[in-house]
Design brief:
6-stranded mixed beta sheet, 7-stranded mixed beta sheet, 277 residues, 7 helices, alpha/beta, Metallo-beta-lactamase, Chain A, 22% strand, binds zinc ion
């Protein structure tokens, strides 16, 4: 009898714990490759960041066709490996464009992003916070030390007498605060810079998604210093391996973090993988 009662109370305890977890809901983070992520919030919202879903490292060639609801697309800067298929996805899903003002302007004027989905409600600039009510979240734009000219396949390559580079606002990173979920820092493309020390003054970052590939951004050693300054609970490396020139590896990043005594923070994801946070 006692055993039965014990078993019953254990079962009830398990049900209670799993019920609580379901009530709070997990935040799902899916990595397509390069800097492209899909984030599903506990309230059912869907946010894409830098949606290059056709990135060669993405094992799923039907990712765009399989997209259901998308509430917002966040772009960190204008380079083609970050704009990706944003316009195509916006037309298919009605997603609103979150971007620095100059980039948002030219995404509409030059690339044809639907203007009703790219208004002042979701355009911003560094230091400002934008509400994302459809997804139960808000997002703050922070610095990124990079460039932001708009470069996509339908803009001609540089040539004498050819078209000028197209302005794309300031490059940014994003601090995404999810109601009932984690605070996520997507660095965009950047070097490590001193003002990253400001981030933990304002936010407790649960998950940092950081570029490590080198050549165009910080490499694993420099990115490990960024992690030390930002103080996240977990860090996932990105923006490496897509091309041979992005030569930084997760193993090098782990070794660099280990040297600082924070190697335990790293979680490695593979393109095409989804994890709950
Ligand atoms: Zn990039």
């Amino acid at each position: 009898m006692l055993k039965k009662l014990l078993g019953l109370s254990l079962l009830l305890g398990t049900l209670l714990v799993s019920g609580l977890a379901a009530a709070q809901g997990a935040t799902k983070v899916h990595w397509y490759g390069q800097a492209a992520f899909k984030i599903e919030t506990p309230s059912g919202g869907v946010i894409l960041i830098d949606p290059w879903l056709k990135v060669p490292s993405n094992p799923n060639k039907n990712s765009i066709a399989e997209l259901g609801r998308v509430d917002y697309i966040l772009l960190t800067h204008g380079h083609r490996d970050h704009i990706g298929e944003a316009v195509e996805i916006a037309k298919k899903t009605g997603a609103e464009l979150v971007a620095p003002y100059g980039l948002q302007f030219n995404m509409v004027s030059v690339l044809g992003y639907p203007e009703k989905q790219a208004t002042g409600a979701t355009g911003g600039n560094i230091g400002g916070t934008i509400k994302l009510p459809k997804s139960g979240a808000k997002v703050t734009l922070v610095n990124a030390a990079h460039g932001s000219d708009i470069t996509t396949p339908n803009i001609p390559a540089p040539a004498p007498g050819g078209q000028s580079a197209i302005h794309g606002g300031n490059p940014v990173g994003y601090i995404l605060q999810i109601d009932g979920g984690p605070t996520i820092y997507h660095t965009g493309d950047t070097d490590v810079y001193q003002d990253m020390k400001l981030i933990p003054e304002f936010y407790k970052v649960d998950l940092m998604l950081t570029c490590i590939g080198g050549h165009f951004t910080m490499d694993p050693a420099r990115a490990s210093l960024a992690v030390e300054w930002v103080k996240p609970k977990q860090v996932v490396p990105m923006h490496f391996g897509t091309y041979p020139i992005l030569a930084g590896t997760a193993a090098q990043f782990k070794a660099a973090l280990d040297k600082r005594g924070i190697g335990n923070l790293m979680t490695e994801m593979k393109p095409g993988e989804t994890r709950n946070f």
